[in-house]
Amino acid sequence: MLDTLRKPFFIVALILIALTAIVEAGSGAKLSSASMTLAGASTPGKGILSLALLDALLLFTVILIGFSIVIPERVQGRIQGIVTLIFSLLLLFGAVAMLIETFVLLTLMLSLLLAPIFGTVAYLVAFGTFQTGPARVTLGLLMTLKLAFAACLVLAHQRFLQNKGLVLLVLLSLVCTFLVSFLQGFVPRFLVSITDDIGAIVVCVVVLIFGILLLIGSIFSVIKAII
């Protein structure tokens, strides 16, 4: 595969998915401090921030594939299991932390919204002005980057399509991005903070499932390398 791999396309694909994760992490991180101070965030959304976890997993998978191409198999077997174990633990920790934080925030918003009159007013003041415009622009950029990443990956080598785990991750990344965008767009603006949080919870659950599978696989790899 190394002889027929179109390296420029593979490198571009790697850069694109790395840029995607950086945009998601950077854009969503601004909201965590801004929402509680009622300040505006340039690209808001817990949903956007949660996508960073999923695409970090996708980035890690592509990096592993790249290493498997250029690093000898005997060296790869010793290192990959340990690196994957560490990454999966960090990924699970991040997903659990975000899931708890998002669930608590969702509970708070619903409690305020359903507690008229003062609770509803407090909700509208704190969470009723979700900036859908910047979020829509960010999600559009992310979808473009992901589609370009998928195209470059296929152009790098068609055999990537035979990697069912990689294809599933790419599809889930696209579907989750669409889901977050849909949940931000189909309700009135004052409810977007709630639906966006629901989207973030769904994405975190997806990441947890893949993180657990990755952790189990890495444990077996480490045991095999030791034995």
Describe this protein's structure.
The protein is mainly α. The chain has one domain (7-226). The protein contains seven helices and no strands. The chain starts with 6 loop residues before the first helix and ends with a helix.
Poorly predicted runs:
29-43
Tally of separate helices: 7
Mean pLDDT: 86
What helical percentage do the residues reach? over 70%
- What is the radius of gyration computed over CA atoms, rounded to a whole number of angstroms? 20 Å
- The tally of strands reads 0
**Element pattern in H and E:** HHHHHHH
Q: How far do the termini sit from each other?
A: 29 Å
Structural class designation = mainly alpha
The largest pleated sheet is described as: none
Number of domains: 1
Strand content: under 5%
Shape summary: flat
Give the topology.
Elements: H1 7-34, H2 46-70, H3 73-113, H4 118-127, H5 132-156, H6 164-185, H7 192-226
Helix pairs in contact: 1-2, 1-5, 2-3, 2-6, 2-7, 3-4, 3-7, 5-6, 6-7
